[in-house]
Structures are given as structure tokens and as C-alpha cells.
Specification:
The protein has 111 residues and is an alpha+beta fold. The chain has one domain. Helix content is 29%, strand content 11%. It contains four helices and three strands. The chain has helices spanning 3-6, 47-56, 70-78, 100-108, and strands at 33-36, 42-45, 61-64. It has a three-stranded antiparallel β-sheet. A hairpin with a 5-residue loop joins strand 1 and strand 2. Helix 2 packs across helix 3. The protein is globular. The structure holds zinc ion. Zinc ion is lined by residues 14-15, 17-18, 26, 30, 45-46, 48-49.
Length: 111
Amino acid sequence: MTTYERRRAPEPSRCIAAHPEDPTNCAGPRDAVIVLDSHGGKAAGCEHHAARLLASLDGARVEPGSIPGAAARAFQAADSIRPFCWFTNAVRTESSQLSRAEHRIARNHRH
Ligand SMILES: [Zn+2]
């Protein structure tokens, strides 16, 4: 049993990778992608929420789930998703709040 499996989801119709404060619905099967956090926790999730979780967790990785190619797509999508992107009124001033793609753009503009 992992941390994710023990935590009771407030919205049982969604996958485990869906953050409790993320209001969006699942897209596709709920075990399409496996997300691994840096502490060894595992969470099966749909492609949509796996990508969002991946973008929000430092050092997280993905493993293939039930859908071939979904893990790779989630990994790619996570690149342009901001951490905790569902907090839409948050002021984005810290570099840790920007997506990896935005970090690259910021770097490219600096020289
Ligand atoms: Zn989901």
C-alpha cells in the first residue's frame, strides 16, 4: 500500500492522480498511466491527471499503465503544464511556479 492508496479521495469517480483541489474530470481510463513520486509512492491515473500530477511533483516519473503510449504523452504534456495549474488566481512570480517549457523560454531570452 502506498500513500496515495491510503488517502481517501473526496471525489471517488476520479482517478487517484487527480488532486483534490483540481476540479477537472478524468480523460480516458483511470489506470492509463502510473505516476511515481520521488518518495517511491505510486498512483495510477488517467492521462490528463497524470500529466498534471507530474508537472506538480518535484522529481516525479511516469510508468506505462494500461494504455500504450499514454505515459509518454503525459510526460510530454507535463512539460508545458504549470505546477498546480488549477490555482488560476495564484500570482506567478516564483520560478518554481512556472512550467518547464516556460523555464526554457526564460533561459533562451536571457542572452
Ligand atoms: Zn484522472
